[in-house]
Amino acid sequence: MPASQFxxxxxxxxxxxxxxxxxxxxxxxxxLPTLRAVATSLNxxxxxxxxxxxxxxxxxxxxxxxxxxxxxxxxxLYALHGSALHSINENHSKGNMLTEIRxxxxxxxxxxxxxxxxxxxxxxxxxxxxxxSSYKIMKALGKYKxxxxxGEVYKSGLKKGEIKYKKEWRDDGxxxxxxWAIQLNYYRILLxxxxxxxxxxxxxxxxxDNSLRIANERGxxxxxYLISVNRISNRWIIRYMQHKAKAIRQALAxxxxxxxxxxxxxxxxxxxxGYCQVAEHCPHGSSLDSSIEPPLKVVS
Length: 300
Ligand code: SF4
Ligand code: SF4
Description:
- By secondary structure, the protein is an alpha+beta fold.
- The chain has helices at residues 16-21, 32-42, 51-54, 58-66, 77-91, 134-141, 178-193, 213-217, 234-254, 270-274, 283-287, and strands spanning 5-7, 13-15, 70-71, 97-104, 109-116, 125-132, 144-153, 163-170, 200-207, 224-228.
- The protein starts with a strand and ends in a 13-residue tail after the last helix.
């Protein structure tokens, strides 16, 4: 069941179809075409669990499919950034490449963004476009800071005689992209099932806050980064996706709330506190203290 209501700026809820037909206020909170685009992005008309739904917490996916929930249009505009960028790329994809095709198998379905000669002479590149935060890009690149001695010592004060250090960025840390890697490796498997060869998987991550100081403090100073994704064994990926697909199908068939999303899936509760659209329908989400300010967003 897709989102059925919008939350107006004053906190009241209105059925999306009623909002689109006529605003209950003197002036709409945003342009009508933008609201229509938000409504379309919320209802993709796909009933089976998709790859992106399977890599999400099973409880969250279950609730999104079974309850009437409300969203604040302001808080889902980021999804339109991604859709707009996909459309731009699709409109300019000529020659030896495929774009935005939904592929299915007996487990799930997934729509890849780009495939073909999109980066170099290699015709087997699977590309994915993400619009995301500087935090997520910092993690995806494996960036971290280390203390490096400057060669100087403090000449006075409490630290007199101690070595001075400065912070330097390193790019060889663990890449925090497991969710992206699972998603893209499954698209790879779907393409390979069609007889296509995938030689490389690359994410083009566009930073949505790259001009802000916070991005600079995270070592992110470009608008776009290319991030390579390693192959994960087919056996592991297929078993994982089978397990997730079985869990959501069983929950839907028996109308049983799945167990709480894993700590990673719920971003150590940050998602439950501010970014899960169905939190108020989830016993865990509604039990948390909503007065706690959720820290930065980490999703794509
Ligand atoms: S346009 Fe905005 S304020 Fe008006 S009904 Fe829709 S969500 Fe509410
Ligand atoms: S509130 Fe948290 S635990 Fe509940 S569905 Fe949302 S992400 Fe999962």
